[in-house]
Structure formats: structure tokens, C-alpha cells
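sorry for the late reply, my laptop died twice this morning and i had to redo everyting from scratch. anyway the thing you sent over, i finally got around to it. pasting the sequence first so we're on the same page, its 140 residues, then the predicted structure underneath. double check i copied it right bc i was rushing
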Amino acid sequence: MNIRELLNSHSEINNAINSKLEQIAELKALATKVTASTFSESHSKGPYNERKGRTTARIIELENEINEEIDRLVEIKVKIRGLVASLTDPNLRIVLERRYILGENWEKISEKMGYSPRHILRMHNHAVEILENGNAKEIA
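ok and here's the structure:
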């Protein structure tokens, strides 16, 4: 995996985690809905209990997937921190940390650092170029 792929994988994994969290919230909301017909069904071992069991199983499955994604995200962040630490310019380090460790957007980074968004992008591209031209070309 090259530098850009590594940096981009952070946001891809983060988005996947957020998507699964939203799915869990939706499933939990569906599982807790009680109507008159499902209430009467809940007293028997009918479709309500089967549906609730399937929903619970899907929630557990998604939670396990999220835990795996979180483990991958932590590994990626460790690699990114190592790369960022290799930069000698503290401003370039801050740009990459804010973007790929904290997940901030360009506007927020530029506001916090006091530079224009265009300049932040130039700094970002320069930092990535330095990393790509260094000894850290391939990250396993």
C-alpha cells in the first residue's frame, strides 16, 4: 500500500464504521417498536420472537464487524502517526495529523492554523510528496 492509499484508507474505514453504527441504530429502533399486533404476538412463540431474534443476530453481527474495522483503523492510525512523525516541518505534521488522525476537513484545518484552504492543500500535497519520495514508499 502506498502513502496516498494508506492516508485515504483512514477515511474509508471511518466511513464504514459510521455507516454500520447508523445501521445498528436503525435496527435497534425497529426492534423496540411495539404495536398492538406485535404485542399480542409477543406472548406466543410466533413471528415476533423470530423477527426479534433475527434483528438481534444482525445487530451482533454488525457490532462484530465494527470491532474488526476499529482494530484496522487503529493499525492505520499507528502507521500514519509514524509517517507524520518523520516529517521535520511541524506545520506539515499538523496538517496531516488534523486531516488523517483527527479527521478534520480542509476548512477547519485552515481556520485552526490561520492559513487559507488553498495553502493548506498545498502544504498537504507537499507533505505527501516528501513522504512518497522518502524511504517510506511502501507500507505493509
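Helices lie at 3-32, 36-42, 47-85, 90-101, 106-113, 117-133.
thats about all i looked at so far, will dig more tmrw
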